[in-house]
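As noted in the main text, all predictions were made from sequence alone. Below is one such record, for Schlafen group 3-like DNA/RNA helicase domain-containing protein.
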Amino acid sequence: MPDLAQSTFILPQDATLTSEQSALEQRIWAFINDNHNTTSTHLLIISGDAGAGKSVVLDAAFAQLQKAARATSGELAGTDNKLLVNHNEMLKIYKEIAGTKSYFRKKDFMKPTPFINAYRKAGKRADVVLIDEGHLLLTMPDPYNKFRGHNQLADILQLARVVVLVFDFHQLVKLKSFWTPALLKRVTRDYAVTHYHLTEQMRVGDAAVNDWIDHFVRGKMLPLPHPQHFDFQVFSDGQPMYDLIQRRDAETGLSRMVATADYPFTVLGGKTWYVQAGSLRLPWDKINFTDRPWAQRPETLHEVGSIYTIQGFDLNYAGVILGPSLGYDPSKDRLTVDLAQYQDKEAFKKRPDLADTTDAKAAIIMNAINILLKRAKHGLYLYAADPALRQRLLQLAK
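Prediction:
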């Protein structure tokens, strides 16, 4: 079996938290100890960019908490604690961890809706709830997932004494979980709230590349940096990029193709849907019924991943296909977005409470790009389907 730490937020056995991560773990531990006996709910919100190591710290803090909860004595012995994540692939990893540690139980890890429904039905409150990928919490009813409330965070805050929430506004990818700073403030205004921000970048292995991505997802086109220890390239065709990804995977592993959701697909029906990138044609990722993350399964080297299979996970090298929704305006030298080209209909499901979703939809597309571009530790390769954007990126690469 592959090392559980590969591509995931789980640290290898010989690795340790950074000083910033250790400081946050200690802050979480102090926050829990100070507040778990209070009658009111206390909330700690942890923010930070994709790749800042938020999930790494949350995993370490929850391990420390559950060791104390399952001890025979101590202030936290016997406490009822949960870690929630609204992401199927990440939940698989957490449950796999549970099978390897004596202080974890698989029931310690849940999706938000089952937690809300179970604790509300039982009429009880958890002592501590940690929420990973909190930006994926629903902000509207979702009958398909059996959530009949209006906001999952609001419900969780009523069902726990201490809540530790990992949150990143730049990783919102669906209207049904669309948050704004004003909404988060409104939902949490009746609670004692503490904020903590992680500033490190643990994934993209070069600060100049990370800065280029930050400008790009805001629409600004900058010359590509050429760092010594990070491979950053633009391709005029998808096939050579895929050829290089296959070589990188043979050399280092964890090298995959991913794409924006600009190519038709449906989850049901069993049909194979394809992504076209110049002369390259590869199938979209499939529903993963195994217990392994998408990037760790060898057959997925011959698929194209999406934000739903790669969000929250690491790659060594990423070949990113920027689909037709992304264009280029030469008069302004800026990236453009065409909402009509985006094929993820689930992401754009109607919201009766939002009068105009145009800006929200554009933000979702740019957030998805940010997620894809910040997957790789050692190399990032780009291909743009739009000819004008592709030509401009090739110019910037020179």
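Residues 1-5 have pLDDT under 50 and may be disordered. Residues 219 and 335 are 5 Å apart (CA to CA). These features were considered when defining construct boundaries for the mutagenesis experiments described in Section 2.9.
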